[in-house]
């Protein structure tokens, strides 16, 4: 074996080890994000009853929806870009994101908070505060640390402090403190995360005032495609259970249960997306960056097949454990859900990694719109005629529509880059967002 080939294998081994280490580090993030909200549940329900927890759940739902808007799609469009920035430009990029997010947060939360209070009159203040802190939870620099492939910084500045504070609020509530200790703990976490991140990244006060009102509006508009992707992706995912229930009440239990299991599984699968974003984005050469992105899509497709088959076989025993024998998952429903996991795993890299590397955020947004347009009626009709299994099939149809749009866009863009068709001029919004850090 030649020395060049040996060196190539060594380089690949080093890269593979780095990716594996990053994957393990990122794995703790979704686990803690999933667990931390549940730490306070026993204390809240034991001392203030189910009504308080219902108000919290309502506030989280509305605040989380507002948070999708407040986040402005920076995690989609920005992670790859900051991966190859200098430290100084990363600090400026974070300042830009923080200012624009804050500007959008004011009107978004001004709607979410009063609405939460109105819908939960018994615990109006609690619901309103929870909606506010849920919307502010997106102000951290997690998307930058993903691009940098620094999971420890993500954990230490954002995820871990929030988990500790929620646990402390649970202890305080159990000791007789007000239930407002829970949203106060989340508020401290939401405010401290960007402050600590700014210090870690070296963001200066001058960076935060560098943008005038016109520039803020311009950057918000340039984030339009990434924001559209997030909004429409959340529509058919978040409202799926509601739509299935409208189609048939009998569909609710099976659909909601399998969907919850699938989302728990996806919390682990999304870890690969964190790793691949940074790995692809840190390559400075555009051609090689696209090669990495294609390789990332192939890696995700392989992981997706394995994950989908595993979920199909484990869905029924997992449901028996999680739902204490109250839900049975038929083999066909498990197979459909497994196929859904496979497709979602592929679209994680095709849309969030490959199309971003190709400069086609507009296609990612378009695929999300198509997914919502197909998914809502498909879930409804599937539930109407085939109950829970049909609703799951409708969800799968939506994801297939999403990946189809993305693959067509990838093929078209690659043909343009290889010169097989006349390359068109830049489309509005297709290029990466340019900030003062560019």
Describe the protein:
The chain has 438 residues and is mostly helical. The chain has two domains: 195 residues, no CATH class; 180 residues, no CATH class. It has 17 helices and no strands. Helix 12 packs across helix 17. The C terminus is likely disordered.
Mean pLDDT, all residues: 81
DSSP summary, beta strand count: 0
Tally of discrete structural domains: 2
Q: What characterizes the major β-sheet?
A: none
Q: End-to-end span in angstroms?
A: 44 Å
Percent of residues in β-strands: under 5%
Radius of gyration: 22 Å
At a glance:
The chain is an all-alpha fold and 438 residues long.
Protein traits:
mainly alpha; 438 residues; 17 helices; disordered C terminus
List the topology elements.
Elements: H1 3-39, H2 41-71, H3 74-77, H4 79-83, H5 87-119, H6 124-136, H7 142-148, H8 151-174, H9 181-201, H10 205-208, H11 213-222, H12 224-238, H13 240-247, H14 252-281, H15 286-322, H16 331-357, H17 361-417
Helix pairs in contact: 1-8, 1-14, 2-5, 2-6, 2-8, 2-12, 5-6, 5-11, 6-9, 7-8, 8-9, 12-17, 13-14, 13-17, 14-15, 14-16, 14-17, 15-16, 16-17
